[in-house]
Amino acid sequence: MFDALFKRGKSTMNPVKIGLLGLGTVGGGTATVLERNAEEISRRAGRDIQVDFAATLDLQQAKKLGLDSLRLTEDAFDVVNDPDIDIVVELIGGYSPAKELVMQAIDNGKHVVTANKALIAMHGNEIFAKAQEKGVIVAFEAAVAGGIPIIKAVREGLSANRIEWIAGIINGTGNFILTEMREKGRAFDDVLAEAQELGYAEADPTFDVEGIDAAHKLTILSSLAFGVPLQFSKTFTEGITKITPEDVEYAAELGYAIKHLGITRQTEKGIEQRVHPTMIPKSRLIANVNGVMNAVLVKGDAVGATLYYGAGAGDEPTASSVVADIVDIVRAMTSDPNNRVPHLAFQPDQLAETPILDVDEITTAYYLRICALDQPGVLAEITTIMGNSNISIEAFIQKEPAEGADQVDIILLTQRVKEGDMNQALSRIEALPVTCGSATKIRVESLA
Ligand code: HSE
After folding, report:
1. Is 377 marked as binding a ligand?
2. CA-CA distance, 328 to 342, in Å (whole number)?
3. For ligand 1, what atom is nearest to the CA of residue 318?
4. Fewer CB atoms inside 10 A, N or C side of the chain?
5. Cα 448 to Cα 432: distance, rounded to the nearest angstrom
6. Is 24 flagged in the annotation as binding?
7. Annotated binding residue at 312?
8. Is 202 annotated as ligand-binding?
9. Whose CA is nearest to atom 7 of ligand 1?
10. CA of 234 to the centre of ligand 1 (A)
11. Which of 292, 122, 270 is nearest to 208 (CA)?
12. Atom of ligand 1 minimally distant from the CA of 173
């Protein structure tokens, strides 16, 4: 009785042929997931999906993955130029030759799936323009927050909303380091070495710890949220290398956790687009996202705050996004190219010229750790400068000097102020004869 129903979705069409560029962590995960879940995936997509050709420089790796019966090549351009391939899946990473390969694939009329955040953040405008011209799709769900379908959520699920802001933990390695430092008091370098061993870190781990990887991802989220072209060079980026165990401890005393956040916010003057260590109240759900996990908070005017959580890296979590993109493409292959979901959420001719604000123009609250001589009047000098700059102090801690020491740490929490004004006040404080060296400044967000 249900025969017709069961047969529906079983395609009689030829399988869609995939060309994989790269058989590393994500490439291997993609092949495994496509194979293991082939039947369910085909029931969803309406067509069978077959990995037909793969490029890898490591033929032994292909053997290890059981993929040595695939057509294999060491030259990725062989895959991109193969007339049988419908969808090219770029999992090589980096700017070049990934860009040349993707542009060539588009020129050849192939759809593209990529997990390459650096490529999209840096060259996405050019890539999407060419894809538009050629009527093909370039899908990049895996480029941001690994397995979390955040691009689909922002681009489609929240399309009714005026997005107000997004704040996310979008680098697993950095979050792992901060978590281990806070929970186990471990040293920075020691935790980074472990993240590298576990395969979370980028090929160049400075991309993780200096915030470049998160800045790539935030640039993409910002464009999707506010309908502006991708502008990676305007993303303010500060890493986590200067966070000390003392700051982690003082933050906890004040009721905060330090997280490496990507934040983008629409203001009256323009868009804030920034990645930096951020103190957030411990009571927020996102403050309790630990280890390599990622989480993204999106605030829309209609829906309110929404939170997306999951694995931001790893073979199968990232493959989950890659394969979902493949399924989306298969479903949309025969649709009118002019009526597809736009690459950057807004129609290409509707992108706005809203400026991305310089970091001096952003407004936030601050945690300051100022080293000063332990003598009368010091605090008055510091607070006078703050007062003259119209900066209100929200909380204050002064630590006992260490035995025999004549210097103390003064910790201040300020109310929200323009970064430029804060920097001016801080320069004056640092120039006082009673303070020692540069102050530590960490931005504080309530994420309310
Ligand atoms: N190095 C990245 C991270 C991998 O640690 O989050 C996923 O983009």
Report:
1. no
2. 13
3. 7
4. N
5. 35
6. yes
7. no
8. yes
9. 313
10. 21
11. 292
12. 5
CA angle 274, 345, 298 (to 5 degrees): 45
- Full pLDDT tens readout for the chain, 448 residues: 445 444 444 556 899 999 999 999 899 999 999 999 999 999 999 999 999 999 999 888 888 888 878 899 999 999 999 999 999 999 999 999 999 999 999 999 999 999 999 999 999 999 999 999 999 999 999 999 999 999 999 999 999 999 999 999 999 999 999 999 888 988 888 999 998 888 788 888 999 999 999 999 999 999 999 999 999 999 999 999 999 888 999 999 999 999 999 999 999 999 999 999 999 999 999 999 999 999 999 999 999 999 999 999 889 999 999 999 999 999 999 999 999 999 999 999 999 999 999 999 999 999 999 999 999 999 999 999 999 999 999 998 888 887 888 899 999 999 999 999 999 999 999 999 999 989 999 999 999 8
> What separation in Å is there between the alpha carbon of 202 and the centre of ligand 1?
6
Residue nearest to atom 8 of ligand 1 (CA): 313
Q: Show the ligand 1 pocket: residues with CB < 6 angstroms.
A: 146, 171-173, 200-202, 208, 213, 312-313
Provide the CA 357 distance to its chain's centre, in angstroms. 19
Q: Which residues are catalytic?
A: 217
C-alpha count within 13 angstroms, C-beta hemisphere, residue 267:
17
Q: CA neighbours within 13 Å on the CB side: how many for 386?
A: 20
How many C-beta neighbours within 10 Å does residue 16 have?
Answer: 23
* Length of the chain as a residue count: 448
- Which domains, ranges and CATH numbers included, belong to the chain? 3-148+316-347 (3.40.50.720), 150-312 (3.30.360.10), 361-444 (3.30.70.260)
Choice from 26, 197, 200 to test ligand 1 binding pocket (greatest atom count within 8 A of CB): 200
Alpha-carbon gap, residue 359 to 284, rounded angstroms:
25
The pair of three-digit structure tokens given for residue 299, joined into one six-digit string: 């605030």
Q: State the closest ligand 1 atom to the C-alpha of 202, by its place in the atom list counted from 1.
A: 1
Distances (CA, A) of 38 to 10, 43, 47, 289, 438: 12, 9, 10, 32, 58
